Prior knowledge:
This protein is of the alpha/beta class. 41% of the residues lie in helices and 24% in strands. The protein contains eleven helices and ten strands. The chain has a six-stranded mixed sheet, with helices on both faces. It has a four-stranded antiparallel sheet with strand order 2-1-4-5, with helices on one face. Strand 1 (5-16) and strand 2 (19-30) form a beta hairpin. The longest helix is centred in the middle third of the chain and has 18 residues, at 124-141. Bound molecules: adenosine-5'-triphosphate. Adenosine-5'-triphosphate binds next to strand 2 and helix 1.
Amino acid sequence: MSNTALLTVSGLGKRFGGLQAVADVDLEVRAGEILGVIGPNGAGKSTTFSMISGALPCSTGTLHFDGKPLQGLPTHAMAARGIMRTFQHNKPFASMSVRENVMVGMHTRLTGSLWQVLAGTRGAAKAERDAAQRADELVDFVGLGEWRNADVGTLSFGQGRLLEIARGLASEPRLMLFDEPAAGLTPAECDRLSDIIRQISQRGIAVLLIEHDMRFLMALANRVVVLNFGRKIAQGTPAEVQADEAVVAAYLGDVGALADA
Length: 261
Ligand SMILES: Nc1ncnc2c1ncn2[C@@H]1O[C@H](COP(=O)(O)OP(=O)(O)OP(=O)(O)O)[C@@H](O)[C@H]1O
């Protein structure tokens, strides 16, 4: 893990009418680390995530990736810069196989060769073979090797989530944003997902993880940022934030969540 910030968020804020949903949030995600963001219900996690991923404009604040401003970039431009968001808008192409779906995820890296493929020019066959091989590696990495030729419509909910990760990795991101990835998964699927996210970070990809499931997040994150009523109230290692008085107080209404972690 490095100490250099890849994503820097400063003074981030969002106002919805009279409600200050997020106020003055600073955070940074470093190369190769897993940064978790937690907070009780309504703390502003989803709103923060949406602003970072570009789905929602910020009312205040700045976002920089690798030192360059991020605001106003469309999703495809963010992907081209190396930022990949999972689980909200990336619906799979239902009539395609698992492998084909992952190949589609490569388009930000394959622009030239993909056009060759479509146009049937020289080099096309090799480009397609390489893309299929890379897709197979990613499908194996997320544990869907047996289903590589299956129609994505036949995948379970949990498998669909693994496919999303393989598709996200296909664009060779430097930062992956995960929005509540454990939601709706069985305990066994959560364990598998946890392993995969850990391995992604070990490959040097930075991870920003917003998660309701405290046990899942605390076991995985290198550092944790805690939000409450839209403000950052603590940050540190999982052990540090679990021992932090402001964090304990924020979770008083939800003692089980912190005690379980
Ligand atoms: N589009 C919106 N319009 C108005 N208010 C909103 C909107 N989105 C969120 N809010 C409000 O902003 C606050 C923060 O919501 P947000 O969904 O970001 O919190 P959260 O931490 O993700 O909560 P949860 O854990 O319950 O999902 C809440 O009071 C919520 O009601």
